Amino acid sequence: MTVKSSISLSDRQHAFASSLVESGRFGSVSAVVQQGLELLRDRMDTERADTEALKLILADRRAGTFLSPDEFDHQLEIMLGQGRSSANVED
Questions:
Q1: Position 1 in a domain
Q2: How many structural domains are present in the chain?
Q3: Per-position b or e across 19-33, b if 16+ CB within 10 A of its CB
């Protein structure tokens, strides 16, 4: 279904859309605007999905176990030591 709608474009936007039509990439300025809206919708859908995934990760992390600063330092030293050993790097 197609709905007619009146929109306003800046001179710069219109020049850009017109250049795409003149180059043969699109059949009309309307087609350029439609493609732009589809890209915007895809981008917003991706951002929404990313935000939801981050919320789940944060909720999962908040529900997990936290280390004290001393425990964290100890674990970090162990990991760094293992990394140095595997890379044959001396302290």
A1: no
A2: 1
A3: ebeeeeebeebeebb
